[in-house]
Amino acid sequence: MPAKLNTIWSTAEVAVLKNRYVLGTKAELLGLLPGRNWDCIRNKAQNLGLRRRSGESHWSPEDEQQVRAHYATRGGHYLASLLGRTHTAVLKKAAKLGLRIEEFGKQPRKTNWSEQHLTILREEYPIHGPEHVAQQVGRNQPSVVTMAKRLGIRCRRRPAGRPRWSTEHLGLLMEHYPAGLPTAQLVELLGRKADTIHAMARTLGLKRPPRVVVPKPPKVKVPEPVPAPKPAPVAKAKPAPAPKKPVLSEEEKALKKLVRQKAQAKKEKKAKPEPPKKGWQYPMHSPEYNAWLASTTAGKKATTILDENGRTAIVWRKAA
């Protein structure tokens, strides 16, 4: 079984921790404090309020020499275990020192674009795409695509099965398109669609010549025909006035009134009077209904019987 760690810190160990924890490396502290692991050292330093520096003074010249000697070939994980630091701290230090890991079988990374390579990019990228330009300038395709995006250069992608633009066709397009050759003749000459020709012309920055606007002849105003004079309006004949009602005498008025009275009496005679209601037609418990019920049951006795369905019913029969 492994020996248990001593949990009690001596005065000498605390003094060493206070003097070397801030600037010392992990390997140095583990060598000065035998019998203590790194977690125990960090916990004790935290209890004492000690913090390791993360600035440039944290790295000694010997540590920097180790980084310069081994980072490019062995990487950050080896240095982290060698120096007792985290992998992130080693990567940050290597970046400050300008160190990079060597990639075997690959060319060193190029950062600055020369003016010659930029010219090739502007001329070849819109036509042949990133693969061709990457071979010409000796870079990878992502680098070429990124620089093309920065410069605002677009590559018109070619659909599958469509032939590339040859140098001869591009020369014919650059010669005849700005000269104003009709689109139908360009289609026949190049064997491509009109949309494809115009798209490639836009890619190459070609423009049509300005159209010559032929002035239209002025419109001659035709004098309007003089309208014929309107005929004189014909006067409409006024309608004859309605005949006035005849003035009735007193006898005629009395006779007319008598006729109206007879007609009204005849109409009232024809209207039938409403028949009187039966007693059972009045609302239940009303005075008329109670009077009809009393007259109906007078001198009779209520008898309970069973009907044909076996249900009870009350029948009023004459008293014996």
Description:
This protein is mostly helical. Among the domains are: 11-96, no CATH class; 112-155, Arc Repressor Mutant, subunit A (Orthogonal Bundle), CATH 1.10.10; 160-208; 284-318, no CATH class. Helices cover 48% and strands 4% of the residues. The protein contains 13 helices and two strands, in the order αααααααααααααββ. A two-stranded antiparallel sheet has the order 1-2. Residues 256-270 have a biased composition (Basic residues). Residues 210-283 are annotated as: Disordered.
Keywords:
4% strand, 320 residues, Arc Repressor Mutant, subunit A, two-stranded antiparallel sheet, mainly alpha
Oligomer: single chain
What is the straight-line distance between the termini? Answer: 125 Å
Order of helices and strands: HHHHHHHHHHHHHEE
Whole-angstrom Rg: 60 Å
Question: Poorly predicted ranges (pLDDT <50, ≥5 residues)?
Answer: 103-108
Which strand order spans the largest sheet, edge to edge or round the barrel? 1-2
Q: How much β-strand is present in the residues?
A: under 5%
Report the helical percentage. Answer: 40-55%
Broad structural category? mainly alpha
Output the number of helix runs: 13
How many runs of DSSP E, i.e. beta strands? 2
Largest pleated sheet: 2 strands, antiparallel
Using the alpha-carbon principal axes, give the shape: flat
Mean pLDDT: 81
